[in-house]
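Reply to dn_fold:

You asked what the input looked like. This is it:
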Amino acid sequence: MENLKLFLQRRKKALIISIIYVGIGTLSVCSISGSDLFYGEWSLYTLILTFPVTIISFGYRYAESDYLIPVLIIQFIMFLITFLILSAFIKKKPIDDFEARKIEK
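and this is what came back:
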């Protein structure tokens, strides 16, 4: 549990960016159908902006527009993939001596 907490603390920027980017994409996919609560023209523009993480969900939603649970599952998987890719590219915060001693214990 401590390792997970340290992992997330060191990658806080990647976590925040992933949550915002995939969250906006999820909201736009869930708002693309005419019967959706937040339906509007804005959803097309945000789908284009978040295309890499919404293409699979959009395809599912285009084929089956009634159920949102599979869309949320697909978007959660896309969130994990986005977070892992971003955490590999964003420079990690170095471990100070106090955290290094904490890990050794």
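The mean pLDDT is 86.
Hope that clears it up.
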